[in-house]
Amino acid sequence: MITSARQRASEYQYRFNARFADYFDTLTDPEGGALDVPPRGAFPSRALDLVRDMSLRGGKRLRVAFLYEAAALITDEPVPGLDEAAISIELLQTHGLIHDDIIDGSAVRRGAQSVPHAYRDEFPDRPDTALGLAVLAGDLAAFLSLRVLATADLPPDRAAAMTAVQADAGALTVIGQFLDLERDFGPVPDLDLLHVVTEFKSTRYSVLAPLRLGLLATGADLAPYDSELRRYSTALGIANTLRDDWLDLFGDPAAVGKSLGSDIRSGRRSYAVRALLAAATEETERKVLDTALGDPQCDDDTLDRVRAIARRHGVDQSVQADADRYAHEASTLAGSWHSRWRTQAVAFFEHLPAWTAARDR
Predict the structure, then answer these.
(1) For residues 32-64, b (16+ Cβ closer than 10 Å) or e, as one string?
(2) Three-state secondary-structure class, residue 225
(3) DSSP character string of 52-79
(4) Where are the bilayer-spanning segments (predicted)?
(5) pTM score
(6) What is the pLDDT of residues 267-324, one digit of tens each?
(7) For residue 85, what is the domain's CATH number?
(8) Of 59, 94, 130, 335, which residue is least crowded by CB atoms under 10 Å?
């Protein structure tokens, strides 16, 4: 069943990628595109090109799968507004990726150059301009995300409700970014704080918002189910973040699509880094960690030493065990939905967590 859930997610990914490319074509069609692009100026068109490129590079599109499967909990009939909601979700993800790469200084994203570094290469003598353009490109993706829902051919009350969900998700994600930065000041954070950061930076827009949007598109009332959706989303979001943290330290860079060790180099107190700092008590180990943590120039040899310390203390095993535990919690919660909703869609939510906690990218 895990294989079936993964296969269904891959099918959504394949179909959506073509639909997403069509969206960008119609958005900027010179013969009457949906967006009133100015006739002069190279910067706006360049920003749209970079947003398009980053958006179409791929990713797992799990948010898209969550959206369509949430609607499938209610009906197997076509549901108007799902395509627009899927595009909205992925545009918000593009916004988040661009701003993440600005904050982290990441050069690579999804196997190619990040947007901030593309601008940095284009304006090597004007770093402030490059930074400003990258920020604006991320902002453009965010506003397009809301626009596609607000202009969807839906009953006005439904379009308004779905746009409100997405606007709320975007605002809370930005708040999560503030928490993400604040977490790395002061002492090593406790698990409760890390869970809050995960909830606001990732879970609300990556899991909960797609579930809400899929149900709203069918005309369903969220109120009776929202607390369950929140619990499921929280457990799955923590499992997913734990796996992300594991991959950042122990993954295969070719599979992950970016260089490893970004949490170490940026000094980010992730789940894995927190576990490493708690476990490494020997003076020689602390010296290695103190040298590496927060050093953007940390080389691969030093990162290998950090990784060896982590493995010696079983950090790789403990972080993965926690990811598996939260994935099991999410799966158990979804399993309780069988008596209420359509079995095939419930099975997707029931079996996907185990896959996402074991993925290689």
Answers:
(1) eeeeeeeeeeeeeeebbebbbbbbbeebebbbb
(2) coil
(3) HHHHHT----HHHHHHHHHHHTT-SS--
(4) none
(5) 0.91
(6) 999 999 999 999 998 999 999 999 999 998 999 999 999 999 999 999 999 999 999 9
(7) 1.10.600.10
(8) 335
- CA-wise closest residue to 246 among 266, 221, 224, 263: 263
In-domain check, residue 90: yes
Residue identified by tokens 């920003």 is 47
| pLDDT reported for residue 3 | 61
CA-angle at 45, arms to 44 and 51, nearest 5°: 90
Structural domains of the chain, count: 1
Tokens of 159: 């379009």
| Angle CA 198–55–171, to nearest 5 | 40
Segments in 75-126 forming alpha helices (H): 82-104, 115-122
Element (H, E) at 108: strand 108-109
Rounded to an integer, what distance in angstroms lies between the CA atom of residue 161 and that of residue 158?
5
**At which residue do the structure tokens 């940390």 appear?**
298
Residue at 361 is within a domain? no
Residue 109 phi/psi, 5° resolution?
-145, 130
Name every residue whose Cβ is closer than 8 Å to that of residue 13 and which is 6 or more positions away in sequence: 58, 60, 61, 64, 65
Instruction: List Cα–Cα distances, 356 to 2, 299, 327, 349, in angstroms.
Output: 10, 29, 8, 11
CA 209 – CA 145 distance, rounded (Å): 13
